[in-house]
Description:
Layout: E1 10-14, E2 17-21, H1 30-37, E3 56-63, E4 68-75, E5 88-90, H2 92-95, H3 104-111, H4 121-134, H5 140-146, H6 158-165, E6 200-201, H7 223-230, E7 237-240, E8 245-248, H8 252-261, E9 267-268, H9 274-281, E10 287-290, E11 300-303, E12 306-310, H10 315-328, H11 335-346, H12 350-355, H13 358-364, H14 372-377, E13 381-385, E14 389-393, H15 396-399, E15 412-419, E16 425-433, E17 441-451, E18 458-466, E19 473-474, H16 476-482, H17 489-502, H18 514-539, E20 567-570, H19 591-596, E21 612-618, E22 624-630, H20 632-635, E23 640-644, E24 654-655, E25 658-659, E26 665-666, E27 672-678, H21 681-690, E28 692-697, H22 705-710, E29 719-723, H23 726-730, E30 735-743, E31 746-747, E32 755-760, E33 767-771, H24 776-787, E34 794-798, H25 811-826, E35 830-833, H26 836-843, E36 845-846, E37 849-857, E38 863-875, H27 881-890, E39 900-909, H28 923-941, H29 945-952, E40 958-959, E41 965-966, H30 969-981, H31 984-997, E42 1001-1013, E43 1024-1030, E44 1036-1040, H32 1049-1061, E45 1068-1070, E46 1073-1074, H33 1089-1114, H34 1120-1129, ...
Parallel strand pairs: 1-5, 8-10, 9-10, 20-50, 21-35, 30-51, 33-34, 38-39, 44-45, 49-50
Antiparallel strand pairs: 1-2, 3-4, 3-5, 6-20, 7-8, 11-12, 12-15, 13-14, 13-15, 16-17, 17-18, 18-19, 21-27, 22-26, 22-28, 23-27, 24-25, 29-39, 30-37, 31-36, 32-33, 32-35, 34-46, 37-38, 40-41, 42-48, 43-44, 43-47, 48-49
Amino acid sequence: MLPLSSSDELIFFVNGRKVVEQKPDPEVSLLFYLRRVLRLTGTKFACGEGGCGACTVMVSRYNAMSKEIHHYPATACLVPVCSLHGAAVTTVEGVGSIRSRIHPVQERLAKCHGTQCGFCSPGMVMSIYTLLRNHPNPTPEQVTEALGGNLCRCTGYRPIVESGKTFCEPTACPAKGSGRCCLEQEEEEEPGSPHLREKMCTKLYDRDEFQPLDPSQEPIFPPELIRMAEDPSKRRLTFQGARTTWLAAVTLQDLLQLRADFPHAPLVMGNTTVGPDIKFKGEFYPVFISAAGLPELRLVNSEDGGVIVGAGHSLAQLSDALRSIVSEQPPEKTQTCRALLTALRTLAGAQIRSMATLGGHVATRATISDLNPILAAGKATIHLISKGERQIPLDSAFLEGSPEASLQPGEVVLSVSIPYSTQWQFVSGLRQAQRHENSMAIVNAGMSVQFEDGTSTIQDLQLFYGGVGPTVVSASRTCRQLVGRQWDDQTLGEACQGILGEVHLPPNAPGGQVQFRRTLLLSLLFKFYLSVRRGLSRLDPQKFPDIPEQFMSALEDFPIVTPQGIQMFQCVDPRQPLRDPVGHPVMHQSALKHATGEAVFVDDMPPLDRELSLAVVTSTRAHAKVTSIDTAEALALPGVVAVITAEDVPGKNNHQGEIFYAQSEVICVGQIVCTVAADTYAHAREAAKRVQIEYEDIEPRIVTVEQALEHNSFLSPERKIEQGNVEWAFKHVDQIIEGEVHVEGQEHFYMETQSILAIPGDEDKEMVLHLGTQFPTHVQEFVAAALNVPRSRIACHMRRAGGAFGGKVTKPALLAAVAAVAAHKTGHPIRFVLERGDDMLITAGRHPLLGRYKIGFMKSGLIKAADVQFYINGGCTPDESQLVLEFIVLKSENAYYIPNFRCRGRACKTNLPSNTAFRGFGFPQATVVVEAYMASVAAHCGLLPEEVREINMYKRTSQTAYKQTFNPEPLRRCWVECLEQSSFHARKQAAEDFNGCSYWKKRGLAAVPMKFTIGIPIAYYHQAAALVHIYLDGSVLLTHSGCELGQGLHTKMIQVASRELGIPTSYIHLSETSTVTVPNAVLTAGSMGTDVNGKAVQNACQTLMGRLQPVIRRNPRGTWEEWIKKAFEESISLSATGYFRGYQTNMDWDREQGDAFPYYVYGAACTEVEVDCLSGAHKLLRTDIFMDAAFSINPAVDIGQIEGAFVQGMGLYTTEELKYSPEGMLHSRGTNDYKIPTVSEIPEEFHVTLVHSRNPIAIYSSKGLGEAGMFLGSSVLFAIADAVAAARRERGLDRTFTLSSPASPEWIRMSCVDQFTDMIPWDDPSAFTPWATRVS
């Protein structure tokens, strides 16, 4: 830190108001400043590394040279507050408010049903709002691009995109050639269509309700900031923090002087590298130098030899500059520019591209840089300046960190010069990542070749690869050897061998996927080879023959297409009263608050007096004895109040097998050993790093299912169901197959991490907790056990959660106990908010599963016998594993009747964090195994998988393997309509035609049926209660036992109350769920929230209406308010409890039978994909979902649940990979390492139809749809498998192959075996320890 006595004032504007910070701290981010200092909590904390977009704000700056105002999106978690001098920041609160006036962006996001839990909604609003400030009439492509840096775990993105598209100019209707809008198709049904059975609607919102967008009404840029920017007497600014100093240069000479004075201080522009390094790598810098706004760093000059781009340009500005250059110059001169533009479209998200700069990107020399390999291949040069100036080539020496080619202390990157390409030169950038955009490349490449004019003789060759070493590497030796050779297949073969010999990737390389990355070296080269062959042919078709027609598809990257689709549902009976909202697509009751940022989540609650923050210290060993815990250094740090350990727990430290604080032994990496309470979270986190723990490892250390089986390590007894005579049947079938399927786990990735506010009472050992949970009663139980007090002393309040998906059933109870013990010890309120990495590490997720099967079948495809075994990785404590395992066994037949069927399952005990409930509760994993053996039988019989599925599907009223009777008619209807309405057979033939003409890209289709169980086989888990108060003004306060997680439960309960009481929804208020108002509530899970709580609310309302009937009969024409007033005067109680005893389900495991579930939800999905056999990429072209909804209480909510679940399921089966080390350490701990789907992953065409049926036992004959769509995401997995099978058939490989989930790019590429995979050397597995291991 500099010995300076004072700081300059930091001046910027937030939402039009001037902020003057007298003591700005360089270590404080804009996100912290907004939330903790300005109390603007609409901007959310979700990842802390700029990867999710929840904290998106708009930053506006005035350019004194161009006299223009520039608006750009930024992730507030990465923006140092000191970098904002002279800037204007707009947050979601500054866009609009329900207290004053909501903005059209907020209104349309809400009314288009683009918000569910609402935690991501402010970020979505800000991304679209910033786009509109720059482009008031955007294109659909611009909307999709603007949202590429925003993650949503709830909605499936379609309604969010649709809300943005409402600002676009009208385009051709998707119903091409029909002459009518697709939204009017309900009037165009063909005779005989199944939809004629009931009127079908497609209109989920009314566009006529939308406010128009008027750009002239947007806030003006503060004139004071313009004057500041144009002030000729500007001087260097110094901001002095507690530990660090920020120095902001105002001229280039000033910058150079600062660099000379502090040669090792980082130069901060966008902070997209320095910021994460400080947070996640523990870097510390006493001095920061800022050069933002220097005009010399922002020049763009186009010269005869190329273009010079200032190092201060953001990547978004670089993209704009390159587009301008490409539009002005002939194509042969701009190959490097076009390659860079292609890379920039998918590099990070719009926010990071708007913050990161070209100079910073080049100077960091990151191995995963998408731009540096292209710049190097294009022979770019770097202009450096210090006391003097020099230019160095951006070549292998620079990228690989050679001292003589590196920046010297004090040097600044001034600009980058990008030479124009020539007619006989070809430049390309190539990459493969886990998902299409906002994902760092697994391997990328920059390649260029220069030919002797008029020939295919190589004059110069440049091959650069990223992602295969600690730096970008060059295959320079191979390139030199090929100079003078012809561009032909022989040269390609030699190049492949040369690259494999030169680019060394050890088998235990960080990042894993070694064989895949080695293969990509060759695959990307081959793509470049083909593109150059194509380019030569275009230059001289006579001299250079074109590549084969079936190879053409290899040259085309998958486009990012704006999704579209139709959502169909049963229209409301026209005879239904207009005021009755049931059956209508009603907007989520908190949607507008979500969109304005005014919905309050736990960490949005204002700080309390004497409040402390809590940070965790977790185990770094999977199985070890704790020999000592040294807290002395931590306790000595400023602001630290206490370190809490197991000794501080006044009650039980182990409750129901769940351990709050580890004591003498740790049983997984990530187990909480102790916590630190301090006055700020920064102090608590720093102190947590100083706690010293000594361990002695204990054997065995069990990480995988296979290891658990080897050590006979289980959490609970085996569960089994069986029907028929399995062994006899195997002796009387035509064929028997055996196989196994691995399904890896999944992180919940709820946008709001686990958040708890624990407030100790002043008397009677009371404790009040505010938290996001699905099970307040469970929290109450665990906290009471930890504190050794009656449950009546513990009050749990749950207003809403920012997503849950099962991850907030049991885990909040353990974490609340941890927080409550800290609150008890210190006597202070405790705020306990897990950072994303800690949340992922501690709370685990979906159970990894190993399924083994033996199937006996006839040549016709009819399955006669099945013997299936399931093993799940439960982790180190019981949690929900036994119940999940029981669900897996009970649901193991899916939609199929197999007369001789046996299923067994065990939950394995391992040294991983305990896996827990997750949407679908085991069904999405287990049923993959079922559908896998259906596909395998089909392959052996020469049939389509869909044919085998239909042959074996339940067709008439039947009993399940556990003897529960059901009628599969809705299942059959969903299946038939899915195949018909999706044109499955016609599209299947079209895909085969495509595949016959395309060798390197293949299309696949799959349709899967579903029989999904609702509820739990334990009757008391279905009970529910409600409390309804009517006040004297006629308003109603409604409380029930369910938790609002984003699934629209409160919205539906208001609809139920509105119908039952006969009053508008505007009269009804629903605030929170609390153990104080509704005691002993069961969990909100199992898709049962609406079913059970709806019955309870109905019961309470009917009780009240029964009391009011005498009043109403005497004055039938009176108003609601008059009736209530009269009832009060007659001393009629206006408060009632409602109760639903629940569905009487049961399961007798000894007899292997029972009425385990109240009813079933049926569905079917058809998906078409296209895969790139060379890279492993896939593109989701179309999905059609038909879901048996019975009668939908709220079609907008139900369709949103189906779409969101489908996309979450698609993530499970494709992009989402949790990677564990062999030692049990979770590598995937943030947005950089774990990839949930983004907007570009969802189907290009996304159609959902709610199929009508009857379900008389449920409220209004509805069905619970929250989870069912999850498994339908497997249609993507099986469509990918179908495409891979087509590639394998063409290559003469086995028709059957091992299916695994997720079908990641690695799995796709390595399954499409070809000459390139055959060239890759294989390593002896016994000779090394891999970086990551499969835990299923």
